[in-house]
Design a protein that fits this description.
Elements: H1 7-15, H2 19-41, H3 44-60, H4 71-91, H5 94-102, H6 105-131, H7 134-144, H8 150-157, H9 161-178, H10 184-193
Length: 194
């Protein structure tokens, strides 16, 4: 039987240690996460390992998951960090260096291009954040960098929750309208983070 619970409902159950909710979340996201990692790492066994590590971390950090923010953003951020960690580890291993040398030049070029584009996107977003008002920038960073809910932000900086929502909507709208739509990473960024 299919599970039609929302992410939020499942996360609330997960925070209480519900293993069935954890399994449902795993089933909902494991394939999407696997393909996301595989596009970067190109090794099925490494992609499977990273997905497993990500879900172990989700279980271990279940008490810290925010139910009012994007779980998908949280999940993919952990996957990206794990992928980068594995790249760093593999670079130091001789056998992986030999493997990388054996990959066709076009694949190596694509990987380098992807990393360059991601770095360009990061710089572009950082630059655009500087154009926001100080309050918008503060609220956006509290939401996206620290993972705070609107309610938590409201309490932290002593403004209404509706004002927090308004600032976030304005910040996201500004970023979406000013990002270079030509880069695939921008599309991914907009989908996952905004």
């Amino acid at each position: 039987m299919k599970n039609y619970k929302s992410d939020r409902d499942l996360l609330i159950l997960l925070k209480n240690g519900d293993t069935l909710a954890f399994y449902d979340i795993y089933e909902r996201y494991c394939k999407k996460l696997y393909h996301f990692v595989l596009r970067s790492i190109k090794q099925e066994s490494d992609a499977e390992e990273i997905v497993q590590v990500v879900f172990v971390k989700i279980w271990e950090r279940r008490n810290k998951i925010q139910t009012n923010t994007s779980f998908e953003f949280f999940l993919f951020r952990i996957a990206y960090n794990e992928t980068m960690d594995l790249f760093r580890k593999r670079i130091s291993e001789k056998k992986y260096v030999e493997y990388v040398k054996s990959i066709q030049q076009s694949e190596a070029t694509n990987n380098t291009t992807d990393e360059i584009r991601y770095n360009e996107l990061s710089r572009e977003v950082d630059s655009l954040l500087e154009d926001l008002t100080p309050r918008q920038r503060e609220i956006f960073c509290l939401s996206h960098n620290e993972g705070l809910s609107n309610k938590e932000i409201s309490k932290k900086i002593n403004i209404s929750e509706n004002t927090v929502k308004k600032h976030l909507l304005n910040a996201r709208s500004y970023l979406k309208s000013h990002l270079d739509k030509g880069l695939i990473y921008n599309v991914l960024f907009i989908y996952l983070f905004l």
